[in-house]
Amino acid sequence: MDAIIVTFCCVLLCQGQKKIAANGQGVDRYRVLLSDGKFSHSSALLATQLNGKVTSGELEAFTIIRLNKFMCNTLPNGKQVLILLDLDVIAPGSEVANRIGNPQPYKSPDQSGQPTQNRAEAPSNETVTRQPPNNNRPEAPKSNGFYGAQPAVRKPYSAQKVSKPAEGTPSKVHPIDSLTPYQNRWTIRARVTSKSNIRTWSNSRGEGKLFSMNFLDDSGEIRATAFKSEVDKFYDFIQLNKVYYISKATLKTADKRYSSLANDYEMTFNSDTQVIPCEEEVDLPTIKYNFIPIGKLSETAANNTVDVIGVVRSVGDITKVIAKQSQKEITKREVFLVDEGQVQVRLTLWSSDAENFDGSGNPVLAIKGCRLSDWGGRSLSSLSQSQMIMNPDVPEAHKLRGWYDDIGHTMDYSEFQSDGSSGAGGGYATNWKTFDDVKKQNIGQDKPEYFTTKATIVFLKKENCMYMACPAEGCNKKVVDLANGLYRCEKCSKEYPNYKWRMILTANLADFSENQWVTFFQETAEVVLGRSADEIGQMRESDEAQFEQLFQEASFKSYIFKLRAKMETYNDETRLKTVCVQASPVNFHEYSKKIIEDIEKLLVV
DNA sequence: CCCCCCCC
C-alpha cells in the first residue's frame, strides 16, 4: 500500500526560505524557491502547518524534498502560485550543499506564450502519484495529491457526480478533505455529527453569540462556526445527523486546542454561506475518531482536544466541588481508562456526564473531543462538546474488548507522572517511601530520585529563610543593597530600584519512621507558609511578631510531599540533599485507599 | 469574531 513513487523532487536553491509576512492570525508565511534541476519556480508558499520545518531548520537551502501534496492557484495575470501542503525531506541541504543543474525560471504557458514546452516539467497532477500520508484516513478517496487545479487543465479534485440532484442542488461535491483557504469554489455534502448550543460571549473585542458544528463525509470532517446573524439564520435550520450541501463558507487554520478533528482548517459561516438539505439517501458515516493511544498522550500537547478509546478499568464515585470562578457547585466523577499500551489515564466527567455514567462491566469507552490536561502528567477532562460512546462498533473497540477479557484485566498499568509543576501528588503518586526507607534503601545515592511521603513539619528554620532577589524575570540571584535606594545584581550586572523576595526555607519533616531535613524553595515554601514570599518579606520587616506567628502556625501540619533526593557536594563534603518539589494537602480519601492497599499487600505475603 | 468547560 505504501508504494511511493518519487516523481517530483525539488531543490531549494536560494538562501532557503524567506519569511514574507504575517497573515491575519500572526502566523508567519514562508516563500520557497523550488527547482527540479531544469526549471525553478519562485512563487511557492509553504502552508502554515509546515512552518515548523522552517523553524526547526529542516528546510535549509538546497534541501531536496518530495512534494506529497500541493495546490496551484493561477492569478489573474497568469502567474501560478504553488501552495506546498505536505512534503518530506529526502536529503538535507547541508549534504546537498549545491544547486543542482542550471534551472531556468519556469513560466506558465499563459505568461510565456510558449504553451506546452514547460508543461512536462511543471507540477501537474500526473506527476504526483504518491498516496499522501493521509492522517489515518484509509477510507479517503484520494487518487492523487493535487488540490484545486486550474479548471481549464483539470476537473476539480475528486469531484463526484451526484446521481439525482434535487432542484437547486449542486451538480458536484468536493470531499471535505480537499478544502483549503486557497480555494473558495467548493460544495461539500456532509452529515452534521455534532451541534453545539448557542453561546454568547462578551470581551474587549466585543460581544455576540455563536454556535459550532462538525461536518463529516467519507473523506474527513471539519468544524464550522456560525456567528451572530448566521446563528439566527442557521441554528434552527441545521439539524444534528442530517446531511446538507454546504458552500461559500470562509476557511481558516484550525486551532488544535479546540478541536480533535483531523483537519488543518475549519469553517466560519459568512453572509454568503449556503446550506441546502440533501434530500436523497446518502451513505455517510455518523462518527469518525482520531484516537490517540493512551501511552502517546504524553507526546501530545497539553490542552489539545483529543479522541481517546480505552477500557473502563475503574470508576470513582460522584463527588461535588465548588468551581473557583463561578462559585457554583458541580458534580464530577473520575473514570480510569486503559489500553494495550498498559498505561492508565484518568478521565474526569462533569455534571450530567458524571451523573449518568455507568461503568459497570468494564465497558469500552470512546470519547471524541475531550480536553488533554497536564495535571498529574496527563489526564483527560470531558467538555460539553465531548461525545462519549460506550462499546462503539469500531474495530478499535472490538480489539480492546478481546484484549481486556483475555489478558488486560490481569495486567498492571503505569500512570502518568507529574513533573512537579502541576498535578496530582498525593493519591496518584507511585513511588511512596518513608524516611526510614530513604535511609535504608540509599535513595538518591546513585542518581536523583523522586519519592512521595506523608509527613509532618516539625521545625521551620526562620533564620536566613529569605533573601532579596533580582527583580528581572527568571533571574533569582541575590542582590546587593547599595544603600542608596538601588539594588545590584551581579549576574545581570545591573542596578535596580527594586527587588523581589525569594525563599529558601529549611524544614525538618517527620513521618512515623524517621525525620529528614528538607529544603523548600519559593513555590513550595509559599504553600507551607500559606503566604506569598512578598507578603512574608514585608511581614518580617514590619511586624516581627506576626512573622513569628506565621511560622508557629505552619508547624505541625501534615502534607503529602513530593521530594527529590540527590547527592550534592559543597565544600568538599558530599551528602544527600532533599528538596521539596510539591506540597499538597492530604486527600484523606485517597490516602486511606493507599493505606488499605498497603495493608492488603501485607496480608497477602 | 469563540475557544469558558470547572476540582484536586
UniProtKB/TrEMBL annotation:
Instruction: Please state the span of the N-terminal signal peptide per the UniProt entry.
Output: 1-16
Q: Name one GO molecular function term.
A: zinc ion binding
Q: Cellular location of this protein?
A: Nucleus
Q: Which organism is it from?
A: Ridgeia piscesae (Tubeworm)
Q: Does the keyword Signal apply?
A: yes
Q: Where is the OB domain?
A: 186-266
Q: Which residue numbers delimit the Replication factor-A protein 1 N-terminal domain?
A: 18-91
The Replication protein A OB domain extends over 294-391
- InterPro entries per the UniProt record, alphabetical: Euk_RPA1_DBD_C (IPR047192), NA-bd_OB-fold (IPR012340), NA-bd_OB_tRNA (IPR004365), Rep_factor-A_C (IPR013955), Rep_factor-A_N (IPR007199), REPA_OB_2 (IPR031657), Rfa1 (IPR004591)
NCBIfam families given for it? Answer: rpa1 (TIGR00617)
Could you tell me the keywords of this UniProt record? DNA replication, DNA-binding, Metal-binding, Nucleus, Signal, Zinc, Zinc-finger
Identify the stretch(es) annotated as Disordered. 99-178
Identify the GO cellular component terms for this protein: nucleus
Family that this chain belongs to: Belongs to the replication factor A protein 1 family.
Query: What is this protein's record name?
Result: Replication protein A subunit
Give the main localization category. nucleus
Q: What does this protein do?
A: As part of the heterotrimeric replication protein A complex (RPA/RP-A), binds and stabilizes single-stranded DNA intermediates, that form during DNA replication or upon DNA stress. It prevents their reannealing and in parallel, recruits and activates different proteins and complexes involved in DNA metabolism. Thereby, it plays an essential role both in DNA replication and the cellular response to DNA damage.
Tell me the subunit arrangement: Component of the heterotrimeric canonical replication protein A complex (RPA).
Please name the GO terms of the biological process aspect recorded for this protein, alphabetically.
DNA recombination; DNA repair; DNA replication
* Ranges of compositional bias, category Polar residues: 109-137
